[in-house]
User: Which sequence fits this backbone?
C-alpha cells in the first residue's frame, strides 16, 4: 500500500535533507547485550528528524497553497523545521508559539524566517491562533505529527537506516505525537526483513502505551517529563498506523532517560536531547529482550536547552 509512495517521498525530499550518519559503539553494545546502530538525526538540518516531514508536507501542497503559506503551532522542533523547510522552498511560514517558549527556540524560528504569533500556553489558545491565521492568510495548517505527508517524510530516516543495515531485527524510536514511530513502522514493514518497530515512552506521559492497550487514543493529565518533545499525544491519522505496524511500546522512568542520555553523550561523543535518549533507555531496561539482536535506534534530535540540562 505504502511502498511506492515511500520511495517517491524519499526521492522528493532527498535534496533538502541530510542522509544522516549511523554510529556504533562496542561499549554500548556490551552494556546492552545487543548490536546497536544509531541513526543520528541530531545531525539533520535544524537538528532533528522533523525536517523530513515538514519538507515533504510543503512540497506536496499545490502552487496556490504554497503561495498562501503554511502555519503550525509548536514551541519546539517542528516550529524550527517548518520555518526552515518553508524558507528553502520559498514559502511563508506562520508559527504559533506559547508566550513561555524558550527564547533560544524563538530565536531559531526567527533565524529560519518564521513569522511568530504569541499565544497563551495552552492547546486551546494555540489552536485558536492557528485557525485565525488560516482564516486571515489562507495559509495551510500542517500538524507536527498527525499528517500523512509528515509521517511519510519521517519514514525516510528509517528507510536510510535499513538501506545501510537491511538485516536489523528491530528499530526503536521515541514516541510522543506518534509521527516518527508511525513513519519508522512503515519503513520497517516495507523495507525490513521481519523487522519490528518498537517505541520508547516516558512513564510520566505514557498515553501511546495506554492507547495501544485500550484501542482508543488516550491523553495525559500531566506532562512533567524531562523528555519535553514527547508531551504530546497521538492523532487519528498516525494511531491506526501504530496499531497495525508497531510491535509494542516500552515505558521508561525519568532517571533511566537521564542515564541513557549521559551514556550517549559520553560514549558516542554527540549531543542528543532527552527525548532522543528514550529509545536507548528502553533497550537498557529490557536487555533480555534485545540480547543478541541487531537493533536500529533513531536518535530523533539534538536541540538541547543547555540552561535546563541536568545529569544525575
Assistant:
Amino acid at each position: 500500500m505504502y511502498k511506492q509512495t515511500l520511495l517517491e517521498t524519499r526521492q522528493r525530499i532527498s535534496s533538502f535533507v541530510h542522509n544522516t550518519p549511523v554510529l556504533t559503539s562496542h561499549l554500548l553494545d556490551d552494556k546492552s547485550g545487543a548490536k546497536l546502530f544509531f541513526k543520528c538525526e541530531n545531525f539533520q538540518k535544524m537538528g532533528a528528524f522533523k525536517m523530513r516531514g515538514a519538507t515533504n508536507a510543503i512540497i506536496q501542497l499545490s502552487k496556490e497553497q504554497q503561495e498562501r503559506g503554511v502555519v503550525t503551532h509548536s514551541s519546539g522542533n517542528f516550529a524550527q523545521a517548518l520555518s526552515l523547510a518553508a524558507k528553502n522552498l520559498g514559502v511563508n511560514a506562520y508559527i504559533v508559539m506559547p508566550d513561555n517558549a524558550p527564547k533560544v527556540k524563538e530565536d531559531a524560528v526567527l533565524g529560519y524566517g518564521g513569522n511568530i504569533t504569541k499565544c497563551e500556553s495552552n492547546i486551546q489558545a494555540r489552536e485558536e491562533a492557528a485557525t485565525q491565521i488560516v482564516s486571515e492568510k489562507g495559509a495551510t495548517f500542517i500538524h507536527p505529527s498527525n499528517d500523512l505527508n509528515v509521517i511519510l517524510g519521517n519514514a525516510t530516516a528509517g528507510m536510510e537506516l535499513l538501506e545501510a543495515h537491511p538485516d536489523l531485527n528491530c528499530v526503536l524510536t521515541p514516541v510522543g505525537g506518534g509521527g516518527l514511530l508511525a513513519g519508522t513502522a512503515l519503513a520497517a514493514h516495507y523495507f525490513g526483513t521481519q523487522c519490528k518497530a518498537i517505541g520508547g515512552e516516558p512513564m510520566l506521559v505514557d498515553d501511546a502505551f495506554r492507547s495501544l492497550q485500550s484501542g482508543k487514543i488516550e491523553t495525559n493529565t500531566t506532562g512533567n517529563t524531562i523528555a519535553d518533545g514527547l508531551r504530546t499525544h497521538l492523532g487519528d491519522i498516525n494511531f491506526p498506523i501504530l496499531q497495525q505496524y508497531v510491535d509494542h511500546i516500552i515505558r521508561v522512568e525519568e532517571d533511566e532517560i537521564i542515564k541513557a542520555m549521559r551514556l550517549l553523550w559520553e560514549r558516542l561523543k554527540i549531543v542528543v536531547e532527552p527525548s532522543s535518549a528514550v529509545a536507548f533507555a528502553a533497550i537498557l531496561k529490557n536487555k533480555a529482550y534485545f540480547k543478541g539482536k541487531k537493533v536500529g535506534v533513531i536518535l530523533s534530535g539534538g536541540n538541547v536547552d543547555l540552561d535546563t540540562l541536568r545529569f544525575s
Observations:
- The first helix runs from residue 3 to 13.
- The chain has two domains: 3-47+147-308, 51-141.
